[in-house]
Amino acid sequence: MRKFIDKIKPAFEKGGKFGFLHSTFDAFESFLYVPDTVTRKGSHIRDCVDLKRIMIIMVLALVPAMLFGIWNTGYQHSLAFGLTDWGFWNIIGYGLVKVIPLYLVSYIVGLAIEFVSAQIRGHEVNEGYLVTGMIIPLIVPADVPLWMLALAVAFAVILGKEVFGGTGMNIWNPALLCRAFLFFSYPSMMSGDTIWTSGVTRYLAEGKAYASGNGLVDSFSGATPLAHPSVEGLQTAGTSLWDLVSGVIPGCVGETSAIAILIGAVILIWTGVASWKIMFSSLVGGLVIGYLGFAAGVTDLPGYYQLLMGGFLFGTVFMATDPVTSAQTETGKWIYGFMVGALAVTVRLFNPGYPEGMMLAILLMNTFAPLIDHYVTDAAISRRAKKIKTA
Amino acid sequence: MSNIIELKRGLNIPITGSAVQKAKKVIIPDVVAAKPVDFRGLIPRLLVKEGDTVLAGSPVFADKVSPDILFTSPVSGTVTEIVRGEKRKLLEIRIKADKDQKYEDFGTEKVASLDEAGIKAKLMKSGLWPALVQRPYGIVARPTDTPKAIFISAFSTAPLAACPEYALRDEFENIQTGVNVLQKLTKGGVHMSFNSDNYSGTPFHKLENITPHIFGGKHPAGNVGVQISHISPIAKGDVVWTVSLLMTAAIGKLFNTGKYDVSRLVAVTGPKAIEPSYVKGIAGMSMKDIAEYYDNSGNDIRFISGDVLTGSNIGKDGFLGFFDNQVTLIKEGNEHELFGWAKPFRTSQFSTSHTYFSWLTPKKKYEMDTNLHGGPRAFVMSDVYSKVLPMDIYPVYLIKACMTGDIDKMEKFGIYEVLEEDLALCEYVCPSKIEIQSILSDGINLMMKEMA
């Protein structure tokens, strides 16, 4: 294998026959093998961790949410259509049929753009998209038309990332940009009661679905808890607190199960890949505003419900903590996280038009993260200047 | 006794090949080199030509800007070769050593009887002035300055560094004389930092005329720059000098014996060193003189003058640097590793990151090589750097300021306080494989140009 790669390598070098595919070749080669490059300047030895390792841990942390999402997609479908005879494998099978195309579109479109732009710039292909591509299918409804998703992915990767210079330079989280694009361009596909359960949209439009059984069951509401965030609303939908925790509710593919997300959170915090400070302060922010709203009578749900509904946890764990677009300073991370949580719940409580406040809150705080950092570093510098003066 | 300053952040790199405290051989130097490149920002003026004979302590080149600062030959012998690089940059002056070493005599006067000007003149004439390193920027000190204070670190935490208590065990008197000399050059006193681990055990705490400080913690706690930032941070306009303990001893020797003597015990270390131990060598000695320490038949050894984080790659025919008393031999890691980053376990590799499992074996030492372990990327992770930098600065912001060449920001983010060695660990842990030390170098060079 190594010999084969070494044999074809010259063709992909500068000036070689396939020189224009250099970045592509390099990406596949370095995917298989750690490159043989040695240190040139500065430190002669380097830690063996690299971004590939960090990204793969991120991907790994998303796996529980993805697996649960696949199952839940099928399960919600079977509930909606009264397919009581469906066993575990039917459910998984249906989930796979729905979710795998999302992944294919996400990765093919996203990676193609990544490869082309790396090639144009003559850089190595960055592994950042492995994570973005993993997240995107988990934060859209399973029924989203694939061409819309492709368009949104292209928008997010090109305008969200590549124009800034690729991973590490972007201002906004690309996965969230993708969702925001869908949300504002095709609101009918991203809100309402009927889109969250796979198969329902098509059934309503064409009168059939992949396995529609006897049609929608009478009790089907399809609403996510977020659409009717009140004690009464949850009761009508038959959603218990345990349903919210375990995630057997309609919603975006991967965002529903608190348990699956928390498994991911443990992996991320333990490996130090994502900041526990952001996660923690975001939870605190969400709770504070949630309880304020509860106390002020804006909602009759206690604060902790806010953490369990919609994409709050998923956003907190996997997207607010994106090391590139979040605050860079440690003090900044506390402020940033708190604001994300607080804003998300604020938007939810006071603007029913945008029930998923998490997306907007994170994007907004992404925008302000550099400002937070600016004030944090400024404060540190003037504190230091004072110290030097007195010393 | 002052308080212990305990530094929490840092990292001791677990690399194999630390030197046992035994002087295995006395090197009789054959060809040695004086290297202008050991001194940052120096523009050398050559004073000898091939075929000239020199004594130990005879000038071979001088500073073009301050011509009184002389750089002298470590041995007596004949100049055999003048090595130049690109654009005729002066790299090395190679000198073939005589069998019997003869020294220039600089005279032995009582330090107490000398004034500041006399001491400066003697240091510059003998070639030991360049041992004084100025901060900011890490350049050779300017004779016209009076520094705020002079700092000496009496211990090193660098990977595999020579143990000062062993390497300088016969130099106590010389170090004391050196301290007395340095004390006359500043009004702020000579500050010496000790390690909390062996403060009472080291003989050096008995030195007089010093202001002692005690530091605890992992590398870079032994770096003088880190210590300064905790003792008395460098503000804009401040000038302080630093001297290594090794060079303090050489200064003391000059005043005690009248000789320019830069011989020293050198630790030969690293995973590729066979039975790592000490040799009695000299500044500028050739790697060929320690041939029994390595087997370079595969031509895969990197020769480093200094430690693995900050030393310079001098090649198999290279020469020990002026400031160094350590040689590190490591393997060139120019090999592909199949699925390296994807393997769940990678037990032969060390990582500070919990994405690998080397934290389970805290005592284990690793045979590290020079592989980069990845490809260069933009900054992504934000919290890995400050974990290994016990200073009150934001390393990523400083480096970004250096990249953009923004003088104001570099100043704000503390460029006066740091040298490459202080950020070396940031470079080591960087998952984006950014050449932090080299970027910082460019930043410092830009500062010097703009502020001159």
Your description of this structure?
The complex is a heterodimer of chains A (391) and B (452). Chain A is mostly helical. The longest helix of chain A is centred in the N-terminal third of the chain and has 34 residues. The mean pLDDT of chain A is 83. In chain B, 54% of the residues are buried. The longest helix of chain B has 16 residues. Chain B has three domains: 254 residues, no CATH class; 76 residues, Ubiquitin-like (UB roll); 79 residues, no CATH class. Chain B has 452 residues and is α/β, with parallel strands linked by helices. At the A-B interface, helix 2, strand 1, helix 3 and helix 17 of A face strand 21, helix 8 and helix 9 of B. Strand 1 of chain A pairs antiparallel with strand 21 of chain B.
What is the strand and helix layout of this fold?
The complex is a heterodimer of chains A (391) and B (452).
Chain A: H1 2-12, H2 22-32, E1 33-34, H3 51-80, H4 88-121, H5 128-135, H6 146-160, H7 174-185, H8 187-190, H9 200-206, H10 231-237, H11 241-246, H12 258-271, H13 276-296, H14 303-308, H15 312-319, H16 330-350, H17 357-390
Chain B: E1 4-6, E2 23-26, E3 31-34, E4 44-46, E5 53-54, E6 59-63, E7 70-72, E8 77-84, E9 90-97, H1 116-126, E10 133-135, E11 139-140, E12 150-153, H2 164-167, H3 172-183, E13 190-195, E14 211-216, H4 224-231, E15 240-242, H5 245-257, E16 263-269, E17 277-282, E18 301-305, E19 312-313, E20 326-331, E21 337-338, H6 395-404, H7 407-412, H8 420-429, H9 436-451
Parallel strand pairs in B: 1-14, 2-17, 12-13, 12-15, 13-14, 16-20
Antiparallel strand pairs in B: 3-9, 4-6, 5-8, 6-7, 8-9, 10-11, 10-15, 16-17, 18-19, 18-20
